[in-house]
User: Which sequence fits this backbone?
């Protein structure tokens, strides 16, 4: 049995009545805008982004660290478990999912970007 991360995602394409296969998804830990009193951990104050592609069942089971095109070129070496472990001492954390639906529906032939 394949392992899965502690945060997963399942996407359904309700326009087609099936799982959304091969949809790019980003998961970002969004730190609070104002740090709490005390000494917050690095994970609590640094945005961390992961990304994946949904499988044939529309599921994301594992996430890889995301390196933005504007980054220095260094590949992030942290895992989702690393970040969740650092956040364990925090009372709450905020995460954002971003779905690349434009590319997904364009690939399905539902969007024509040429005008």
Assistant:
């Amino acid at each position: 049995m394949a392992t899965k991360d502690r945060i997963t995602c399942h996407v359904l394409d309700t326009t087609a009545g099936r799982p959304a296969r091969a949809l790019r998804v980003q998961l970002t830990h969004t730190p609070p805008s104002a740090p709490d009193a005390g000494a917050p951990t690095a994970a609590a104050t640094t945005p961390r982004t992961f990304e994946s592609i949904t499988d044939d069942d529309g599921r994301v089971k594992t996430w890889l660290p995301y390196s933005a095109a504007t980054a220095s070129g260094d590949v992030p070496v942290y895992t989702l478990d690393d970040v969740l472990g650092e956040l364990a001492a925090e009372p709450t954390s905020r995460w954002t999912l971003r779905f690349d639906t434009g590319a997904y529906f364009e690939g399905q032939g539902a969007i024509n970007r040429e005008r």
